[in-house]
Amino acid sequence: MSSAAEQKTNAAKAALTYVEDGMTVGLGSGSTAAIFVRLLAERIQKEGLNIQGIPTSKATEQIALDHKVPLMPIEHASKIDVTIDGADEVDGRFRLIKGGGACLLREKIIAAASDLMVVVIDETKLVGRLGQFPLPVEVDPFGFTITAKKIFEALRKTGVAKPEVELRCLADGREPLITDGGNYILDCACGEIPDPEASANALANIAGVVDHGLFIDLARVVIVGEDKGARVMEL
């Protein structure tokens, strides 16, 4: 197993301690979250753990079904006790960039509805300043070129020196990627995001922007997987 895979597995194992019998659990998306779902399934089978999962993407839903993790439609949930999810970047104030897997809208809805958000990452995702990973922005397909210009302007006004805004396409490069919600993703290469709160607010106020990948004041626990264990950080 590679070092990165070991770290992701160790982070996912540590996150299991935040799941208790009777909980409703938000199931995140991405490689580390997928490992968590598989480990959670093992715990359910061994301990008879009674939980209900709410997936943040169709991909996660399929993994949960394949491993017999009980699921609940989000419309039936009165509360979500904890969400375990990954991130593309995490800074020292637990601000996140998410959306590399194009699931940011559902991830944010479920995270915001949760009593606790636990982020599981490997060491490479912990950064001093957000922005090296391109910031995903989910937009309505209608008029997306106009929206892209507004996003560029908003990022410039909030301190991003040279933002580059690009439509995310499928692997063949011919067709736009369509999210689970039926939207497009605009990836914004920023280099650095000096003021994530200002950028988040500016993006949220643009007509055509459905949501963005800046997760501010949502994560309360960050678990960093290491080669021989995991480091748990709490706000």
Notes on the structure:
- With 235 residues, the chain is α/β, with parallel strands linked by helices.
- Helices cover 30% and strands 26% of the residues.
- The protein has helices spanning 3-15, 31-47, 58-66, 104-112, 144-157, 196-204; strands at 24-27, 52-55, 80-85, 89-90, 96-97, 114-122, 135-139, 164-167, 184-189, 209-212, 214-215, 221-226, 229-234.
- Helix 2 links the parallel strand 1 and strand 2 (52-55).
Could you provide a short overview of the structure?
30% of the residues lie in helices and 26% in strands. It contains 6 helices and 13 strands.
What attributes does this structure have?
globular; 2 domains; 6 helices; Rossmann fold; Alpha-Beta Plaits; 26% strand; alpha/beta; 4-stranded antiparallel beta sheet; 235 residues
State the CATH class of the largest domain.
Alpha Beta
How many helix segments? 6
The portion of residues assigned to helices is: 25-40%
- Give me the side-by-side strand order of the main sheet: 2-1-3-6-12-13
> How many structural domains in the coordinates?
2
- What percentage of amino acids are in beta strands? 25-35%
Distance between the termini: 31 Å
Summarize the helices and strands and which ones pair or pack.
Layout (H helix, E strand, L loop, with lengths): L2 H13 L8 E4 L3 H17 L4 E4 L2 H9 L13 E6 L3 E2 L5 E2 L6 H9 L1 E9 L12 E5 L4 H14 L6 E4 L16 E6 L6 H9 L4 E4 L1 E2 L5 E6 L2 E6 L1
Parallel strand pairs: 1-2, 1-3, 3-6, 6-12
Antiparallel strand pairs: 4-5, 5-11, 7-9, 7-10, 8-9, 12-13
Helix pairs in contact: 1-2
